[in-house]
UniProtKB/TrEMBL annotation:
Sequence similarity: Belongs to the thiolase-like superfamily. Beta-ketoacyl-ACP synthases family.
UniProt xrefs under Pfam families: ketoacyl-synt, Ketoacyl-synt_C
Record's keyword terms, sorted: Acyltransferase, Transferase
Protein source organism: Streptomyces beihaiensis
Keyword Transferase annotated: yes
Taxonomic lineage from the root: Bacteria, Bacillati, Actinomycetota, Actinomycetes, Kitasatosporales
Protein's recorded name: Ketosynthase chain-length factor
Every Ketosynthase family 3 (KS3) domain range: 2-402
InterPro entries linked: Beta-ketoacyl_synthase, Ketoacyl_synth_C, Ketoacyl_synth_N, PKS_Beta-ketoAc_synthase_dom, Thiolase-like
Length: 410
């Protein structure tokens, strides 16, 4: 259970870039993908901004037979999986039959597909409901469709969770590789920017109602008033390091540590679980706080939650002792897609030696964080911590490290 697990492929669909190269270029420059909702008319709703994936035409990437049976979310996931496998240089038909699997996370399933079919049911009758409704709405549909498309018949699964779930899926994929699987496609892609999904997200009370993209989502800012929802995420190809090196694969980095906790019951007087999740992840990675070169923050943009996260980070790392960034300020919060996108971003940051910025934020001094704002920061990066919290008290932390660990010089 101690095999080193590496990432060899990335597939990204994000509100500020379709494909890993476009996303990374935009993120390094601080280009935001947040804007007015276009997937439906939001004028009657209190929140009207979102991060929508630009320029995505499913028919340009997928065979026509898949379009009637898939939700927008699944189409994004299928294309991201295609890109991740291509990036990894893996042909699934060249692998042993049960050597590869799929583990994804999902917060909502195919909400838009389900909404359309329910509308048909109520307005026209059951004979107008697509047979594909039986699975297109389901939380596990991304895992299933990716598995079918690529013949990935090994251990697979889905974690039904929101923001923290994407990290949990990657951690489970690491377990499967340590148990003997050769390749696992893992991560999360979510998309529920439709009236049904929008109302569901509004019930959290955490969506920003600001109509200005430059001020709507400002984590760790005195003016923070909630987050902007988004769609998309990332899928990663995970492999056993020995196998990846044997085939001379390009390795982005290693999944070195993971920790997860659940917050105590409100009113119990016990402290939130985020700090403990971070400490568990560091122990799992056999690293000290001083070994972490950057933190990719959860960045809730809810003052109470921002204070909890900032306190956890300063208690673990010390005040302003580690750079902190929140590139999701350019995309919005992508539910189960957010953690995997941050993991992919961290790996690209380690590769290129730059920390991408947090945009539109004037950090409040009370948080005592070294928040990277304005523009990217060039620095040597060897290990990064990614933090994610889900609605209801879920906390997850994942450590990624460079492909070839070296002794530190200081």
């Amino acid at each position: 259970m101690t095999a080193s697990v590496v990432v060899t492929g990335l597939g990204i669909a994000a509100p500020n870039g379709l494909g890993a190269a476009d996303y990374w270029a935009a993120t390094r420059k601080g280009h935001s993908g947040i804007g007015p909702v276009t997937r439906f008319d939001p004028s009657a709703y209190p929140a009207r901004l979102a991060g929508e994936v630009p320029g995505f035409v499913a028919a340009d990437h997928l065979p026509g037979r898949l379009l009637p049976q898939t939700d927008h979310m699944t189409r994004l996931a299928l294309v991201s999986a295609d890109w991740a496998l291509q990036d990894a240089g893996i042909r699934p038909d060249g692998l042993p039959e049960y050597a590869a699997g799929v583990v994804t996370a999902s917060s909502a399933g195919g909400f838009e597909f389900g909404q359309n079919e329910l509308r048909a049911l109520w307005s026209k009758g059951s004979q107008y409901v697509s047979a594909y409704q039986s699975f297109a709405w389901f939380y596990a549909v991304n895992t299933g469709q990716i598995s079918i498309r690529h013949g990935l018949r090994g251990p697979s699964g889905v974690l039904v969770s929101d923001q923290a779930g994407g990290l949990d899926a990657i951690a489970h994929a690491r377990r499967q590789i340590r148990r003997g699987s050769q390749v696992i496609v893992s991560g999360g892609v979510d998309a529920s920017i439709c009236p049904w999904g929008w109302v569901a997200q509004l019930t959290s009370g955490r969506l920003s109602t600001d109509d200005d993209p430059a001020t709507a989502y400002r984590p760790f800012d005195a003016g923070a008033s909630g987050h902007v929802a988004g769609e998309g995420g990332a899928l990663l190809v995970l492999e056993d390091e020995q196998a990846a090196r044997a085939r001379d694969a390009h390795i982005y980095g290693r999944i070195t540590g993971y920790g997860t906790t659940f917050d105590p019951r409100p009113g119990s007087g016990r402290e939130p679980g985020l700090r403990r999740a971070i400490e568990i992840a560091l122990r799992d990675a056999a690293l000290t706080p001083g070994d972490i070169d950057v933190v990719f923050a959860d960045a809730a943009a809810v003052p109470e939650l921002d204070h909890i996260e900032a306190r956890a980070l300063t208690e673990v790392f010390g005040p302003r002792d580690v750079p902190v960034t929140a590139p999701k300020s350019m995309t919005g919060r992508l539910n189960s897609g957010a953690g995997p996108l941050d993991v992919a971003t961290a790996l690209l940051a380690i590769r290129d030696g730059v920390i991408p910025p947090t945009v539109n934020v004037s950090p409040h001094a009370d948080y005592d964080l070294d928040l990277v704002i304005g523009q990217e920061r060039a620095t040597e990066l060897r290990s990064a911590l990614v933090v994610a919290r889900g609605f209801g008290g879920f906390n997850s932390a994942l450590v990624v490290s460079d492909a070839a660990p070296k002794a530190r010089t200081s």
